[in-house]
Amino acid sequence: MFRPSARTPLPLRRTLLAAALLAALCGTAPARGAGAAAPRAGGTLAAAGHRLAAAPGDTTGTPSGDAPLWTDPDSPAARQAAEWRREGRDADAALVDRIALRPQAQWLDGPHPGPAVRAGTTAAARAGRTAVLVAYYVPNRDCGQYSTGGAADAAEYRAWVDEFAAAVGDRAAYVIVEPDAVAQVVAGCTRVVASERYALLAHAVQHLGRLPHTRVYLDAGNSGWIPEAWRLVDALRASGVADADGVALNTSNFQTNQASSAYGDWLSKDLGGTHYVIDTSRNGNGPAEGADSWCNPPGRALGTPPTTGTGNALLDAYLWIKRPGESDGTCRGGPAAGRWWPSYALELARNARG
Q1: How would you label 165-191 residue by residue, b for 16+ Cβ within 10 Å and e otherwise?
Q2: Which residues are catalytic, by number?
Q3: CA-based R_g, the chain, Å
Q4: β-strand partners of 340
Q5: pLDDT tens sequence for the chain (354 residues)
């Protein structure tokens, strides 16, 4: 069966994918032992509201309109809930289950991502689920702030991306590419040369976007950081957004679904119809006020549970990209960025509305 590539014009891609879907529904499509290909740039199957279920023994699966997302049974939240039950803290364990029993992203932020990517996507595929991954290793990551790090240079980063892509292979995944990397440059980070950063991001988007069952979303910050969405457009284009399935919004932030959707719709209009996903992991009470309101703010809550059923043709999924309960950094008494913080997890869960 013909598979449209990222270089196929978008209208033609959508026509071909719609025809393939119709053929599959009518029983005329050729059998595919590895599952159907995930549509690129536009989520045609998601918009149609169909799910292509994995066949028995299928080790790939396919992201689609109601694609089931993978929940790691050994996440920090799951381990915490088990520990508290052993200690007799059943009420606290039940609260943390609000995190542990829901799909969350796996962050790849160190050298040699291959083994972890392969393990996560394989476990998800065996469960008939789709992994959500975050590529987070660009040079001068986080502009020297709490999550500083990343590859030493461009060559190391390109090799890292290639290893990441090879490890995903033909298994299904949603991949969020480099949180904050575009927005920080637009906001004035002087640690990087904009053209070099954008070229590396384009490399990541292109190489991950070639994978047959992977959806790729280039991170585009949040509506509270750069309120004028148009300021991101040229940078996103230079960073390869045309080869992605869309952009990721509100990663590790607290903006409401309404604000993020409006922002995504503005970006979509300026970018020719691109889709988006929203991180809803901690936005249940919206953003906090005051200085450093992005860093471990008190009084926040879990947001909309992860789902690919959004009711918005441009919005492909609500995802928990930031893992609730993991610190933003050593502010407000928190541990290092990315470390599990039980008391903060409890607060998020306790404040959740459902």
Answers
A1: bebbbebbbbbbbbbbbbbbbbeebee
A2: 142, 180, 328
A3: 19
A4: 326
A5: 323 333 344 444 433 333 333 333 333 332 322 222 233 333 322 322 222 223 223 333 344 445 699 999 999 999 999 999 999 999 999 999 999 999 999 999 999 999 999 999 999 999 999 999 999 999 999 999 999 999 999 999 999 999 999 999 999 999 999 999 999 999 999 999 999 999 999 999 999 999 999 999 999 999 999 999 999 999 999 999 999 999 999 999 999 999 999 999 999 999 999 999 999 999 999 999 998 999 999 999 999 999 999 999 999 999 999 999 999 999 999 999 999 999 999 999 999 986
